[in-house]
């Protein structure tokens, strides 16, 4: 069984030069090739040098004097640079060859998978052939690297990166700036307007700092600000509707509201309540209408349009 394994930084002796390929390095039991293109400083036979081990384009164990962005035992945030329809996504790791994150590591739901330009938290692993692959970093990997969010984070807006996307909510690492790796957070499904994909960077508001230093988050403004924004959106929607009417009201199911407007049922009711208090809209049955002052005529003057499919 080979003693040397891809993903490690090891100290090897320069044994001999083999032109036009490079130098062979050895640990006394196994030799690996250091390609000329992977030499960053002058070397000569007999030197002991530190190198990173990986597999070259011919799947041979090889060495490089370049330092990758991720080593075995580390957690790294690597950018998605390519997507392969059969194998998975490829990550930039600072070497000439990109690192594969296999489809077996990715969410089953396609819309939750990362896109080119996203960055994912990963660790290094070896497949059955010993080649380097990436594995998604989970909570056990991330928690020791993360810090406890300070109490004054509440209601602060921070940038975060998705590390576990689920339909019931989204787990993220909030960026910590100079503080370090970040703080672990959770965005409940009602507090996001849509599903968030793995590796996506989002701007979130801290709604609660827990005793364990983790945070609850939202993509929405505080209720008062959000109520105003949502009310304006509903007004614009109604103004573009026939007769200024829409087949949505307080009685409309939450999943229909979320699909149509991207907001929770509670947020929808708050926005409608604001508009009704301002006499901008009124409800009749399961329909909501613009007030006559906004439409120029009462919406009840005509027959309302049929409900949308």
Report the C-alpha radius of gyration, rounded. 28 Å
| Content-based structural category | alpha+beta
Q: Please indicate the count of domains.
A: 4
User: What does the average pLDDT come to?
Assistant: 87
Q: Runs with pLDDT <50, length 5+?
A: 295-309
Give the CATH class of the largest domain: Mainly Alpha
- CATH superfamily heading of the largest domain: Winged helix-like DNA-binding domain superfamily/Winged helix DNA-binding domain
- Which strands sit side by side, in order, in the main sheet? 1-2-3-5-4
Shape: elongated
**Named CATH architecture of the largest domain:** Orthogonal Bundle
InterPro entries: CvfB_fam, CvfB_S1_2nd, CvfB_S1_3rd, CvfB_S1_st, CvfB_WH, NA-bd_OB-fold, S1_domain, WH-like_DNA-bd_sf
Family: Belongs to the CvfB family.
Organism: Gordoniibacillus kamchatkensis
Domain S1 motif: 155-220
Please explain how this structure is put together.
- This protein is an alpha+beta fold and 309 residues long.
- The chain folds into 4 domains: 56 residues, OB fold (Dihydrolipoamide Acetyltransferase, E2P) (Beta Barrel), CATH 2.40.50; 65 residues, OB fold (Dihydrolipoamide Acetyltransferase, E2P), CATH 2.40.50; 73 residues, Nucleic acid-binding proteins (OB fold (Dihydrolipoamide Acetyltransferase, E2P)), CATH 2.40.50; 79 residues, Arc Repressor Mutant, subunit A (Orthogonal Bundle), CATH 1.10.10.10.
- Strands 1-2-3-5-4 form a 5-stranded mixed barrel. A 5-stranded antiparallel β-sheet has the order 8-7-6-9-10, with no helix packed on it. Strands 11-12-13-15-14 form a 5-stranded mixed β-barrel.
- The longest helix is centred in the C-terminal third of the chain and has 17 residues.
- The C terminus is likely disordered.
